[in-house]
Amino acid sequence: MLRSLLRASAALAFAGLIAPGVPSAAPGPGIAYDEIVRVVVNATPPPPGNFQADLAALNSPQPVAASPTPAPRKRGISIGNIAGVIAGGGNAGDVAGAVAGNVVSNAMENSVQNSLGAQFGGLAAAARNFLAPHLLRYAYWNGWERVDDVTAQTSTIRKCDAGQVIHLDLAAKTYAIYDPSAEPTPAPPPPLRAQRGRPQPQPGESPQPGTAVASLTEATRPLGAQMIESQKATGYDTATTFAVAQSTGSCHDGNTTIDTVQYLSTIARPTVNLCPVRRAPVPTTAGEAVAPSSGGGCRPTFSATRTGPTPPSNRLALYSLVTFGAGNGATPAPAAQGSGIGFLTERGNLKTLGAADAGLFSVPVGFTKSP
């Protein structure tokens, strides 16, 4: 629907609008924190400052109560029926108890496709991977990074200035070391299943060139300050709207809005020496959700505007909620609370690291090299 907006030229303008450049800085003091990421679908997300309660729920999942009589069979699946489980901290077993896991994945991917269009298809993989709340642990020191996936019992240590990326299997107590330029990447997700009644693009299809008037508008309003995890955090609510109008040929009218709520601490966002830039597990800003499109013959006339304060781009967010919605008008409003598809990131348990913590960034004693 908005493929023309996501061509390389538009993406560059978008990046300049929502992510002002900041000079590279030397690594700051060491820091560690826990992070909970999840998908929220058509439900009210946990509020800012709820990290400890959400962590407790994640560490102590409640079993699904058995029903005295089998529930009646229903045709199809409603995303809204499982939204409460997802948003309320339910685990994968809770979701599986409602519907089969692959059905949930397909429904989520179809929901992304229906609401946002094919150009946001990459978000479907993130939605599938984080249907249940997921706990990650981050540590930064000396320009190095360690990321622990608590659920998968794996850890990745990046010491790119030393030419090392270390993968640890914490369960098997094994390790592997890679050059930063040769670090293995996850396999791409399988293609989205075609839906009945919705024509899918055919391989090699070449649409006729067209024109359109494309616009990107960003409006930010301040939310004030709040204490989160004993840190003062400043809130911002930003609505980023894409719209295409007056389309001809291969271009198509349409619009979508990405609403980003952030609470930014005064702590500098950690940096890593000489490592390739990587996308977050789930989008934490509108910019992280958008990627250029290489296909299509649409050539839009593009404009971009911004109103309101500019959130600082170099501060650690303790709370980030990115909600996607689609509209039919030329200037859709931000998605209402409890509607749309949202990606939520909460951070807490912050602590300072120093030289005594250097062992976190090495292969632990007793681990053996993977064959």
Compose a concise summary of this entry.
The chain has 371 residues and is of the alpha+beta class. The protein has helices at 8-18, 51-59, 79-87, 92-98, 101-116, 122-129, and strands at residues 30-41, 134-141, 144-149, 154-159, 164-169, 174-178, 210-228, 231-245, 254-268, 298-307, 315-327, 341-353, 368-369. It has one domain.
Write the layout of secondary structure elements.
Elements: H1 8-18, E1 30-41, H2 51-59, H3 79-87, H4 92-98, H5 101-116, H6 122-129, E2 134-141, E3 144-149, E4 154-159, E5 164-169, E6 174-178, E7 210-228, E8 231-245, E9 254-268, E10 298-307, E11 315-327, E12 341-353, E13 368-369
Parallel strand pairs: 6-13, 7-10
Antiparallel strand pairs: 1-2, 1-12, 2-3, 3-4, 4-5, 5-6, 7-8, 8-9, 9-11, 11-12
- How do the SSEs run, as a string of H and E? HEHHHHHEEEEEEEEEEEE
Distance between the termini: 47 Å
Sheet with the most strands, sense and barrel status = 13 strands, mixed
Number of helices: 6
Estimate what percentage of residues fall within beta strands. 35-45%
Rg result: 22 Å
Number of strands: 13
